[in-house]
Amino acid sequence: MNETITAIASGMTASGIGIIRISGPEAFAVLGRIFRTKGQEDVSRFPANTIHYGWICESDGRAVDECLVMIMRGPHTYTTEDTVEIDCHGGPFVMQKILSLVIRSGARPAEPGEFTKRAYLGGRIDLSEAEAVMDLIRARSDEALNSSLMQLSGSVRSTISELRTVILNEVAYIEAALDDPEHYDLSGYGTALSQHLTPVREKLRSLSATFREGRLVREGILTVILGKPNAGKSSLLNAITGKDRAIVTDIEGTTRDTLEEQVELGGITLRMIDTAGIRDARDQIEKIGIGRARTYAANADLILAVFDSARPLDQNDEDILSLIRGKKAVVLLNKSDLPPVVSEGDIARRTDAPVIRISAQRREGIEELEETIRRMFFSGHLNFNEETVITNARHKEAIDRAEKSLELVEQSIEEGMPEDFYSIDLMDAYGALSEVIGEEVSDDLVNTIFSKFCMGK
What we know:
Elements: E1 5-8, E2 15-23, H1 27-32, E3 35-36, E4 50-57, E5 63-72, E6 83-90, H2 92-104, E7 108-109, H3 114-121, H4 127-138, H5 142-152, H6 155-179, H7 189-209, H8 211-219, E8 221-227, H9 233-241, E9 259-265, E10 268-274, H10 284-299, E11 302-308, H11 315-324, E12 329-334, H12 344-348, E13 355-357, H13 366-378, H14 393-414, H15 419-437, H16 443-451
Parallel strand pairs: 1-7, 8-10, 8-11, 11-12, 12-13
Antiparallel strand pairs: 1-2, 2-6, 3-4, 4-5, 5-6, 9-10
């Protein structure tokens, strides 16, 4: 952190405003070499938390752009270092030109996520909060946004810290008793320890259980549309997205490959995949598409099985019903605007999946589908604002390891093992929880996490 770094912090597309961020010990010196005001003021004397109008200039004094400069002094900044943000006009060429001037004046290009990494290394945020920053940037729904904001405000850190304190207090008592048995009595301690750890284990299991729905909020529900040719799969995708995303024709086998689209349906993010129609195909290309459809179905969070209710069920339909057996699925009887040949009862005898009658062409039944999905995945409501939700697989894995270590403590208590055995597993649990907030992680893991960040953040 002894180097000064810089990057374009806004998107590299034409926009009204572009932002170039500079952070590090030489931030003000670098700015002073390229920024001019009418009064030729000394940049190093600018007060913290002030904005100044002027020009970014070449070394010969030629102006590159008219801009505003924001001054922030460490440690009260995002990175905890002296920081400057140049607000210029948002053309890609002018932003790149100013960035080049900043680099020539003494800063080096920042690595992806390096500003947030410095905030973590400077102790302003923990690792779970740093990861929440990227989740916040990638959020595609209100619930994903709210979940990220909760974690960014320290909900995970607060919960984990409370649990670590309980564990550490028990370790401290055991160590003190082993060192000074005259003043600390361990008789009957195993029973008391078990009582103290029970709520900790319950909380860890509860946190771990939130991951499934938390992941779905963060990443979206992987939703695969299955059906035989001309059942209305592509029409359904278009109805849900509200645009002609998929080609719809009367020719069977129009969709030969997968088509992916991410949509928000009533606050629920669906990663939708339209697939090739399931049938006994002879065309080699179509066979590959059908194989992909089956693979996606095997890994889907949700399957929307579309049936043409105006045509009798055939062997292709029976194959689709077998594919959804044992999976989370919704059966959609499409073309409800036509005289029905297939009834809800015909489907109910073959599967226990909910059945909804729709008309994809008229966009009828979509609201009922939305409510059905909500009940299937989020217990009928989406409201994670008041509870800590785990959305990160790394966090879940560490929490599960901590719970496993506390389970070993319980086993040692039941088997009457010496108290120093308790300490070993208690400290393993403590270490696993420390990994969640980044207090016990390797440099390689930290570098890997921040390498996934976008540039300039």
